[in-house]
From TrEMBL:
InterPro entries: MFS_trans_sf, POT_fam, PTR2_symporter_CS. Residues 619-653 are annotated as: Disordered. The chain crosses the membrane at residues 62-82, 88-110, 122-143, 163-189, 201-223, 283-301, 321-339, 360-379, 520-540, 552-572, 584-608. The keyword Glycoprotein does not apply. It is found in: Membrane. Residues 630-646 have a biased composition (Basic and acidic residues). GO terms for molecular function: symporter activity. This is Solute carrier family 15 member 1a. Pfam families: PTR2. One of its GO terms (cellular component) is membrane. Keywords: Membrane, Peptide transport, Protein transport, Symport, Transmembrane, Transmembrane helix, Transport. It comes from Cyprinus carpio. Its main location: membrane. Belongs to the major facilitator superfamily. Proton-dependent oligopeptide transporter (POT/PTR) (TC 2.A.17) family.
Amino acid sequence: NTVNNSNKKTAECCGYPISIFFIVVNEFCERFSYYGMRAVLVLYFRYFLLWDDDLATSIYHAFVALCYLTPILGAIIADSWLGKFKTIIYLSIVYAIGQVTMAISTIHDITDANRDGTPDNFTFHIALSMLGLILIALGTGGIKPCVAAFGGDQFQEHQSRQLNTFFSVFYLCINAGSLLSTLITPVLRAQECGIHTQQQCYPLAFGVPAVLMVISLVVFIAGSGMYVKTDPEGNIMWSVCKCIGFAIKNRFRHRSSSYPKREHWMDWANEKYDKLLIAQIKMVLKVLFLYIPLPMFWTLFDQKGSRWTLQATTMSGDFVSILISTVNPILILTLVPIMDRLIFPLIQKCGLNFSPLKRMTVGMLFAAMAFVSAALVQIEIDKTLPNFPSSSESQLKVVNTYSTTLNVTISPNEHLLIESFGSSADYVTFDHQDITVSLNTNPVITKAFSLIKGGRQTLIIPSDPTVMRDFVLRHGEQWCEFSRKFGFGASYTFLIPSTCESITEVEDMKPNSVHMALQIPQYFLITTGEVMFSVTGLQFSYSQAPKNMKSVLQAGWLCTNAVGNIIVLIVAELGKLPKQWAEYLLFASLLVAVSIIFSIMAYFYTYIDPAEIEAQVRKEQGLEPEEMEKETIEMEEKDEDQKNEQGVKQTKI
């Protein structure tokens, strides 16, 4: 069955345009691709590229910030130049190339000439991965404002119920893709793969998201002949920017006191722009002013993908480590209906004025509490971590494979008694590099060594103590079978005698003992904060601005997210706090301070009715009362079709 819409016949199935099934599958695959790649990104930086925690965190948040800035570019391209369909196609190609490039950058065998399992040319892998991330950011951000709106374009005016269902299913696909990918890709990374040496399988963990992105693109193109494609209609953001720019320039020209003051600085645009547009921009600016403190919330929130992930690597847990990565999407799906259907109505019935701005303030405080919880967990972790040397110190452990107990003297005055096939109890710390080791054998054996600053080394005393050196274990002549379950974070040295009869284990670092389950409270608190802050914030923003300005507010909202990630980048690179728990408390304190400032701003904020203000401006412009009354009635009594048309416009950015 077909229906005519603007000279375009669209095929239907069960009352729905067939084209939207391609769009829904496309969105699921794209979200799986993005969140799957992001789930293991900071681990790739840390354990493949061997960056330290601060650099890995900085690059991760620079990437996320870019992903939240490019939607503005995508919206302008779609609305002013290419249209939504072509924008999705072209930027999805860029996106897919980026994912494939990123997957190739994780193949260690490409530059592993000596086949030791470690890339020989890290510059190649870094350059390739950075190129891939830039392309991914352009792709995922560029199509973000287009896909949902393009899906809405497929429906006819009589399909209001189906349009509602589409947006619900669309949102479900986003969360389903996020949930499944964050569950699956860490498991794929834990596998071992490689051509010459078996290493953690980053190519598989990044390759599957790349394949999903290619599938997403193919599926979207497959439905090309069925889509309703609208022409670009112009982007409101450009008009807003030009109007604001003219007002500022005109005010500067008339800065002399001889010119009379105007009620609002935007009134200096009256000479060129329509009063209704100026009034709408005033309403938007009032909301955007409240956005100024908001980046600090995102500064904390997005660290669950960086700092909290790295924190989990210093904890114990097996299957729980997989579940932790899925806590946020699971809690989102659970808490949103609970808050909307139970908590908020209950608070309202109790007679409490829990306004949207108050909800956002409470959401900030929940995020701050999440970081206090993370700090407490970090303090417990720090109690179990080994004492690593500073940049000016060196550490040494001595292992004795000699047949008898040895007295070992290390200059100037370190004395160790080490049993046969045993080791020193812990690493010995030195503030100098050059040491002399003496053994109480007959005759006494003395040898000088030079240690590495800021590192740990192990000195092995062989069965022939006259030769203290590194050794190579050759295979093929005989073999030993030994089984040992390693603990998370542990480091071991195994002493294998020539007879292979008994293998001695030396524990260099104890396994992590703080369980990952302790992270669940901080995830619960941050997700509660997200529901109260993010969902409420967008609802409030849309209620306080004209419907044709939704895209401007969405652009401002995305910018707060980008700025928040840039703040993390700056703190990670410049802060350099000695303890991670101190950094968590710093962020929590900053957010508490910002929430106080925001609550003061909210106290003085006056809620408005955009439709009423627009009606008043139109009346001042000379519209007849009958027309105004008709327009007001239409605003107050929108039918379901009109609501859905607004829903499409709200997704435009």
